[in-house]
Amino acid sequence: MAELWTLSAAQLHDLFAAGEVTAEAIVEAHLERIQAVDGSVRAFLYVDADGARETARAQDRWTPKERQEHPLSGVPVALKDNIVTRTMPTTAGSKILGRFISPYDATVVDKLHAAGAIVIGKTNLDEFAMGSSTEHSAFGSTFNPWDLTRVPGGSSGGSAAAVAARMVPVALGSDTGGSIRQPASYTGVVGFKPTYGRVSRYGLIAFASSLDQIGPMTRSVGDARRVFEAIQGYDRQDSTSLQSGAWAPEGTSGPWRIGIPKEYFGEGLDPVVRQLVEAHLEGLAQQGHQLVEISLPHSVYAIAAYYLIAPAEASSNLSRYDGVRYGMRASGHDLLSMYETTRDEGFGDEVKRRVLLGTHALSAGYYDQYYLTAQKVRTRIREDFERAFSIVDYIVTPTTPDRAFRLGEKSDDLIRMYLGDIYTVTANLAGIPGISIPLGLGEGLPVGVQWLAPTLADEALLGAVRAVESICQPMPWPEEVQQ
Ligand code: GLN
């Protein structure tokens, strides 16, 4: 039998349910793999070996029927460390949370447990999920398993790298402007951002609440679907959770009308990425799907709008870290200086930059000029998609304009870093589902393609992408971390 840590969630679950392997053996194999490669990848901030072993042993006592009934039984899962857990610390990649242990589990964690998943640890991220490289983590960078001198993307870089390097078959990430899809693209894994409101945000440490969404990162679309089915659904603890989001049928196998937005293939697109995405489009045409050129004219304003709305919401969400209610507290000669020193010492530069930007954008006199204008752009972007989806079933774009860049390469040029989000932020602004799937390697580095669907068409999107997965080159092994 192949090494257990090379298998998908579906394969592991089936072996376990059939009684061919124990959950304990599955957990041990993944812990050993983490031990062997995470010294060089640094995907994990915390590994709960004992907790995972205990859960596994409990599952080994289950009857075959119980194993069968839990769709993720026997499956090790990692969580981005902005998803709160009762039994493990949660850092959000920041010093300010100190040794914070949440008094409750996030809804997605409850749902994972209910589905039989074995939570094995917490993964690295840019501080408070602000970033595209994982370099903004207070606990050091994560490295790309395909080339350890490069970033894994971000902000869910730890989750992406953990899945790509076969340390876990499944990880959860969060996506506010691309943080699931971009690192998925950079590391050659599948990353799915569901429709806003399909997955509860209860227990997700808030960055920009009107954009944040949790989703799965896996090595196959089938696994992403299985995990999404387990974690989605209405939650009364999250007032933005959708009641209408009942599980829907997967939809037809086509042929579909596929929209190709001309604004997403313009200047600044890496020729290697362009070549692979265009080959994918050709493959789709050969399968009988109809490619339709469309326009999403307001996408050119998306980065500007996103980098006002997200920091504005962040500045409000992060005001709760004052040294009184959570984690770390610095000393000060009075209350105000205690607040100031705590925030000064606790937050990293990128977080401070965003809080400043957001506070400025929301301040009296500037609100109309910045925040309100950005909200109007957001409406236009949503309308662009509505118009497009009245004539096409799906939209296909590159996930990112480039491939994984070198550590430090964009650190002095943040505008370049922000521009890398150009193809992903629009789905968050519009609230629609988006998925990045790997197209293989372009000159040695993974390249992803993004598929977008109308609001609430999550199941249809997953079904469609599963059907086209077969025309994608299978991902080879990340050689840097091969044993
Ligand atoms: N890279 C984007 C940012 O820095 C998106 C982050 C995210 O989706 N959490 O804000």
UniProtKB/TrEMBL annotation:
Ranges in a coiled coil: none
Catalytic reaction list: L-glutamyl-tRNA(Gln) + L-glutamine + ATP + H2O = L-glutaminyl-tRNA(Gln) + L-glutamate + ADP + phosphate + H(+)
Keyword Ligase: yes
Domain of life: Bacteria
Active site per UniProt: 80, 155, 179
Membrane spanning residue stretches: none
Entry-linked Pfam families: Amidase (PF01425)
EC assignment: 6.3.5.7
Keywords, sorted A to Z: ATP-binding, Ligase, Nucleotide-binding, Protein biosynthesis, Transferase
Domain Amidase per the UniProt entry, residue ranges: 26-462
Gene Ontology molecular function: ATP binding; glutaminyl-tRNA synthase (glutamine-hydrolyzing) activity; transferase activity
SUPFAM superfamilies associated with the record: Amidase signature (AS) enzymes (SSF75304)
One cellular-component annotation, GO: glutamyl-tRNA(Gln) amidotransferase complex
GO term, biological process aspect, one: translation
Function noted in UniProt: Allows the formation of correctly charged Gln-tRNA(Gln) through the transamidation of misacylated Glu-tRNA(Gln) in organisms which lack glutaminyl-tRNA synthetase. The reaction takes place in the presence of glutamine and ATP through an activated gamma-phospho-Glu-tRNA(Gln).
Subunit record text: Heterotrimer of A, B and C subunits.
Family indicated by similarity: Belongs to the amidase family. GatA subfamily.
Name of the protein in its database record: Glutamyl-tRNA(Gln) amidotransferase subunit A
Lineage of producing organism: Bacteria, Bacillati, Bacillota, Clostridia, Eubacteriales
